[in-house]
Amino acid sequence: MDERIFALKGTILHTPTPQAFEIRDGGYVVCRGQTVEGVYDALPETLSAIPVYDYTGKLIIPGMADIHQHAPQYGFRGLGMAMSPQSVWSSWFEQYSLPEERQYADLAYAERAYERFTEDLLRTATTRTCTFATIHRAATELLMEKLAAKGFVSYVGKLNMDRNSIEGLSETTEESLAETALWLERTHDRYEFVKPMITPRYTPSCTRECMAGLQSLIRRFRVPTQSHLSEGLDEIEWVKSLEPDAGCYGETYDRYDMLGTLVPSVQAHCVFPTEEEFALMRRRALLWVAHCPQSNFHTTGYAAPVRRYLDAGIHVGLGSDMAAGSTLNLFRAVTDAVNASRIYWHTAERKGDPFAKRTYLSFEESFYLATKGGGSLWGKAGSFEPGFWFDAVVIDDSALSDLNPRTPRQRIERAAFLSDERHVAAKFINGRKVL
Amino acid sequence: MDERIFALKGTILHTPTPQAFEIRDGGYVVCRGQTVEGVYDALPETLSAIPVYDYTGKLIIPGMADIHQHAPQYGFRGLGMAMSPQSVWSSWFEQYSLPEERQYADLAYAERAYERFTEDLLRTATTRTCTFATIHRAATELLMEKLAAKGFVSYVGKLNMDRNSIEGLSETTEESLAETALWLERTHDRYEFVKPMITPRYTPSCTRECMAGLQSLIRRFRVPTQSHLSEGLDEIEWVKSLEPDAGCYGETYDRYDMLGTLVPSVQAHCVFPTEEEFALMRRRALLWVAHCPQSNFHTTGYAAPVRRYLDAGIHVGLGSDMAAGSTLNLFRAVTDAVNASRIYWHTAERKGDPFAKRTYLSFEESFYLATKGGGSLWGKAGSFEPGFWFDAVVIDDSALSDLNPRTPRQRIERAAFLSDERHVAAKFINGRKVL
Q: Which among A143, B40, B201, B376 is least buried, having the fewest CB atoms inside 10 angstroms?
């Protein structure tokens, strides 16, 4: 077993709780093997001889978890973001998402596109991901290989889509289930940190037969699941017409073990839960909400009720939702989540919503969601507490400074609003230096 | 007179109307002196010998007009953006804005800070600005000098604040008016393209005596004015208590010729107009609304009713509102304005607001606001139509490409979402190459 031990020296910030940053300016965070040994103002005598990466003057934060992103959509990032919000489902999805994904039947295309995606992802502050691929097994395996080669900790999903797709991007129910079973067999134990996640695209794209088949695979392989839930009002109406016997959209997943019962489930968006759906969600201990604020502005013009989820004890993490979000830089989600919560607060308060009291998020809370909130899907991740996976990102914010001295707390807030890949100076995942 | 004539060759995009881009891929935009001669697919024979800057493969767009920004707040950009929205007025303003501005009494500080601000502004796509300075005459003159030296077309305001400020950042009414008069005398004709703009900070910071004195200066110097209007609900209540005889906040400017009667007036924000205020605004032909969406999310959690203003024929441009907005990159305002309009649309529609129909903006409209919308404050600016001021920005978007060919229209949308100063390859203002 790897028992490397080393330290990073610099301005260390993390959020063990959502309420506040713990900060050590000029401190050390020590890695033993793949996990955090501890954070110190000065190295203890027993550790005085270990190698030290000196990042004095730079910010050292936990790696971020992007728990909802579509890797194959990276090609059209920043496009179609301003289409009519009344036609996102019919136009953006059919004009951009599906035709782009169709190209991944071609492995040579997938090779070039996924290489670019993983290269660019490497330069961000993200260390862990939940990533949608396409329906194509071979291309999905290629994506997993690339994520593993670059050192990421990822769940990757080969999609299931046996209804409501476009010409050239569909599967029969049998194909969908057979390919998924084969893919699970092939990848279940292939990598230490890149794992398959069962991924029906969303209820409108999967028949009940397909969902029942996936449920059998969940029970056989015990892998987690991900999908989309209650993202838009039109979508919710559509699900109601497709699955009229379900009490709420969430039930269309729950009845197939895909809402956090047997295995962990990540559900993206959750912007418009009904009271019934909310009550169901709060009973599901293994459910994670992937909050994707930029995407929500784009697709619905609104914001998810994140404070309600947090108050109910539901796990929440952040997602870029590439490419209904335009960037892989998860700092954008951190700052957008703050804005989204203000928008929710403002409109809810004016409408007399009983949840309007303090529904907005602090910067600390939003940073927590991006690190420990989403990281909790992997157990102990997203914080520098002892025993946590050693994911660390070094931010060189010197180019963002001004004429006044700023505190570490101010510097990380400014970096969240203004930094990009130019400011990511180094990155470690599970104790391994990957950048 | 300068009768230089030259052309830029590349992929030319502009929005003569808000409805659509006019695009010439591989075309020429010709500058004669300081204005646009025309846009051509190929150079006419009479122009065949003029110098050509070859930007083949790059996007050439009109320069952008940032019609609301606070230059002295650049130092704390990205800070305090996540404070409680219920305390923005009392905490963000008093913790960041005013203490930072107080430092500009020190000219050495102003020299360093304004040099950095204008250097960084130069690297953006912005060519024209309406810029708030501080109450300090000397530092304001220094800012004007720097903007002029770098080639900008700007209106700059020495602020007036004779009430409700903090220790060390206030003026008596006499000082405020005397310094403003002296400043107007000194700078009124000093530069060709950088001009003074009368700038009461906002109604709560100026007594009626001060406003009346400024009105006299408006009538004497005939310079335009700028201020803040109906930005937040608390602020509006405060104005009501300070000026109980005014029928609406806007009237507190209008009665002193500061809402677009005698001279042009730029009013920032205008998020919460009453019906009375809206009716007043639409009667004022020389009023420009500076829409600052990122700032609105930050300070109020809501969005201005831009569609209403446009439908009423009120001029609208975009503002970064540095530093209630975090960046000088006005593309951020373009994309945020689209999102803000969706948020307004969504919430208005759900509330049964009669203006809910198609209140969202298209990307074309938002781009138009950033260029010709704000540019119209200077007459013919923000477009490549013949006779318009020759402001042009060259965007090298090659680093933002993907594996698929994209149209110029797609490329400019992607650049709006993803570009920053790295992608600004060249800039011309009034026919002069400044970058």
A: B40
Domain C-terminal end among B378, B393, B410: B378
Tell me the CATH number at A134: 3.20.20.140
Determine whether the interchain pair A342/B413 forms a contact, defined as Cβ–Cβ distance below 8 Å.
no
Structural domain total, chain B = 2
For residues B183 and B188, give the distance between their C-alpha atoms in angstroms, rounded to a whole number. Answer: 8
Task: State which H helix or E strand residue A39 sits in.
Answer: strand A35-40
Cross-strand bridge partners of residue A82: none
pLDDT for the residue A105: 98
Measured between alpha carbons, how far is A154 from A67 in angstroms, rounded to an integer? 9
Measure CB to CB from residue B301 to each of A343, A363, A415 and give the nearest one.
A343
CATH of the domain at A44: 2.30.40.10
Give yes or no for A49 touching B (CB within 8 A).
no
- Residue A370 lies in domain: 64-378
- DSSP character for A72? G
Q: State ipTM.
A: 0.96
Which secondary-structure segment (H or E) carries B289? strand B287-291
Residue of A nearest to B303 (CA): A343
Tens digit of pLDDT for each residue in A107-165? 999 999 999 999 999 999 999 999 999 999 999 999 999 999 999 999 999 999 999 99
Closest CB from A345, A351, A362 relative to B351: A351
Q: What is the distance between the alpha carbons of residues B65 and B382, in angstroms, rounded to a whole number?
A: 7
Antiparallel, parallel or unpaired: β A225-229 and A265-269: parallel
In this prediction, residues A233-257 reach a mean pLDDT of 96
Binary contact (A417, B339; C-beta < 8 A): no
Query: Which SS3 state, helix, strand or coil, does residue B391 take?
Result: coil
Give the per-residue pLDDT at A1. 43
pLDDT(B43) > 60 = yes
Q: Between A and B, how many CB-CB pairs are < 8 A?
A: 144
Query: Are B48 and B149 contained in the same domain?
Result: no
To the nearest whole Å, the CA of A330 is away from the closest chain B CA by 14
Which residue of A103, A351, A357, A402 is the best one to mutate when testing the B interface, meaning the one whose CB has the most B CBs within 10 A?
A: A402
CA distances from A38 to A25, A35, A51 (A): 15, 9, 15
pLDDT classification of A359: cutoffs 50, 70, 90: confident
Residue B1 has pLDDT above 50, yes or no: no
Region B126-145: mean pLDDT is 98
Three-state secondary-structure class, residue A310: helix
Distinct helix (H) and strand (E) counts, chain B: 14, 17
- Residue B318 β-bridge partners: B66, B291
Chain-chain contact of A342 with B298 (C-beta, under 8 angstroms): yes
Q: What count of residues does chain B have? A: 435
Same domain, A358 and A273: yes
Find where tokens 């329906």 sit: A135
Q: Give the pTM.
A: 0.97
Chain A, 319 to 338: residues with Cβ < 8 Å from chain B are: 326-327, 335, 338
Query: Whole-angstrom Cα distance, residue A2 to residue A5?
Result: 9
Please give the structure tokens belonging to residue B360: 């969202």
In the 8-state DSSP scheme, what is residue B47? G
Collapsing DSSP states into helix, strand and coil, what is residue A290? strand
Residue in B closest to A335 by C-alpha:
B82
Residue numbers in A near B82 (CB within 8 A): 335, 338, 361-363, 366, 413
Q: What SS3 state is found at A123?
A: coil
- A278, A251: one domain: yes
Per-residue pLDDT reduced to its tens digit, B191-249: 999 999 999 999 999 999 999 999 999 999 999 999 999 999 989 999 999 999 999 99
pLDDT in tens, B155-202: 999 999 999 999 999 999 999 999 999 999 999 999 999 999 999 999
Indicate if A17 and A90 belong to the same structural domain. Answer: no
